[in-house]
């Protein structure tokens, strides 16, 4: 059993914004990165300052796009430079991301096995580093969901989200508006498909 050194009572949890009563789709990458930034720089990125909606409004990662254009990744074209300016590195499936073209190639073409992914997640969390597990929802992972990994034990991963995704079998373990979720290892194994990924965000 291992967890990141996070105080759940003070961590900057946020809720996915809604339109017409429904959670806005395809913002999980943005939300994961917000949690990563808040973990490393809580005074600079939190609920009141540079939260996910402000990150998008300020275009810190790139240009906002409608949900049906999220596959273009234009919303992340500034991300590698932004992370470098904030003394952070990003790896996706063990590939270092130093440019937008690196990012796109990793999203489309990087491949690792489920066992490799679990090893990266467990080593990262045990060292106190940010890791995201990016697993398939539909279409062999072309529709996916990335989650901030808070901890793990023998049966489950414990992850942070900003809303509950209906297609994903995970359990909310908080009884308030914090989306701390229990995600079974079996569910990760089941949903580990060709486009699945592990994101690693580390301090330089």
Task: Describe, in plain words, how this protein is organized in 3D.
This protein is α+β, with helices and mostly antiparallel strands and 204 residues long. Helix content is 27%, strand content 26%. It has 6 helices and 11 strands. It has helices at 28-40, 52-57, 79-85, 100-109, 114-126, 185-190; strands at residues 2-3, 18-19, 22-23, 88-92, 95-96, 130-138, 143-152, 156-161, 171-172, 179-184, 197-203. Strands 1, 4, 5, 6, 7, 8, 9, 10 and 11 form a 9-stranded antiparallel sheet that branches. A two-stranded antiparallel sheet has the order 2-3. The longest helix has 13 residues, at 28-40.
Which parts are unreliable, with pLDDT below 50 for 5 consecutive residues or more?
none
Helix content: 25-40%
Main beta sheet: strand number and arrangement? 9 strands, antiparallel
Helix count?
Answer: 6
How do the helices and strands follow one another from N- to C-terminus?
Answer: EEEHHHEEHHEEEEEHE
Strand content: 25-35%
Distance between the termini: 27 Å
C-alpha geometry = globular
DSSP E strands, number? 11
Mean pLDDT: 97
Q: What's the gyration radius in Å? A: 16 Å
**Quaternary status:** single chain
Structural class: alpha+beta
